[in-house]
């Protein structure tokens, strides 16, 4: 169920019917080489969550366009809000989702650059008592799905506008993909920063100055539909696990009772 498509009476029923579970697919606006739209992360992750919520009922929040994307400010189409505004936007949105009756909120990481931001947003909710508990789902696949994913791919380097992301985009919105604009050569990490075991904000740009990682030339919509199906399985399973979780909310309340003395 998509939040924005529900009438007010239907919305109230949806909160009850889903067990009070809401899913937010977090993405950004950024360059995806020259062949994919700047909204790729949001378009794909939101559709993924909607499909998963059809299998395991939940309410999916409207498309979330804002995340950590300072590394794309050199390219057209990026929208990079300040860290302070991003945190405020997340926190107030979570509060509003909670005010609407949802007691379990899943933040799905639909953009690699949000891999640090989104868990921090979830951790920061512990600074005060909330009536809701936040769960974070990353891009990883569990069980045998990771092996099944790899079997579908013809290339080894992935990460941004690559074979898998382009294939999924071809399955979701082929009219937005320009396969004739796919670079003629793969984009492999350049390794221009060599500090093993460490991290610097310039690392991504050092490896991928054109905001492309991988080789999209072998992407196909058929491959994309199979990859998307694996993601839907994964997220639907996670939604189900969150629904069944009774320990988390109980411990959340217990923790805040103790913290408040």
Describe the structure.
It is a single chain. By secondary structure, the protein is α/β, with parallel strands linked by helices. It has a single domain (3-259), classed as Creatininase (Rossmann fold, 3-Layer(aba) Sandwich). The protein has helices at residues 8-17, 40-55, 83-99, 117-124, 145-152, 163-172, 203-207, 221-244, 247-259, and strands spanning 21-26, 59-60, 104-109, 133-137. Strands 2-1-3-4 form a four-stranded parallel β-sheet, with helices on both faces. Strand 1 (21-26), helix 2 (40-55) and strand 2 form a beta-alpha-beta unit. The longest helix has 24 residues, at 221-244. It is globular.
CATH architecture: 3-Layer(aba) Sandwich
Please report the first level of CATH classification, the CATH class: Alpha Beta
Poorly predicted runs: none
Gyration radius over CA: 19 Å
How many domains in all? 1
- Provide the residue-averaged pLDDT: 96
Offer a few descriptive terms.
9 helices; Rossmann fold; 4 strands; alpha/beta; 261 residues; 7% strand; four-stranded parallel β-sheet; 43% helix
């Amino acid at each position: 169920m998509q939040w924005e498509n529900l009438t007010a009476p239907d919305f109230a029923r949806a909160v009850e019917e889903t067990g009070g579970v809401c899913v937010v697919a977090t993405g950004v606006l950024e360059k995806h080489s020259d062949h994919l739209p700047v909204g790729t992360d949001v378009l794909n992750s939101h559709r993924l969550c909607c499909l998963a919520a059809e299998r395991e009922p939940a309410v999916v929040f409207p498309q979330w366009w804002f995340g950590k994307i300072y590394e794309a400010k050199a390219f057209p189409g990026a929208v990079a809000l300040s860290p302070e505004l991003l945190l405020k936007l997340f926190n107030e949105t979570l509060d509003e989702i909670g005010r609407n009756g949802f007691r379990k909120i899943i933040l799905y990481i639909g953009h690699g650059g949000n891999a640090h931001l989104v868990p921090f947003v979830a951790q920061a909710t512990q600074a005060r008592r909330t009536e809701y508990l936040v769960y974070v789902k990353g891009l990883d696949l569990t069980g045998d799905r990771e092996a099944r994913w790899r079997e579908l791919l013809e290339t080894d380097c992935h990460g941004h506008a690559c074979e898998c992301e382009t294939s999924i985009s071809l399955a979701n919105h082929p009219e937005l993909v320009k396969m004739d604009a796919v670079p003629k050569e793969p984009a492999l990490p350049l390794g221009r920063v060599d500090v093993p075991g460490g991290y610097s904000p310039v690392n991504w740009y050092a490896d991928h100055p054109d905001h492309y990682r991988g080789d999209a030339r072998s992407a196909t919509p058929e491959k994309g539909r199979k990859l998307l199906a694996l993601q839907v399985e994964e997220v639907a399973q996670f939604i189900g696990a969150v629904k069944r979780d009774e320990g988390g909310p109980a411990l959340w309340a217990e923790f805040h009772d103790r913290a408040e003395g």
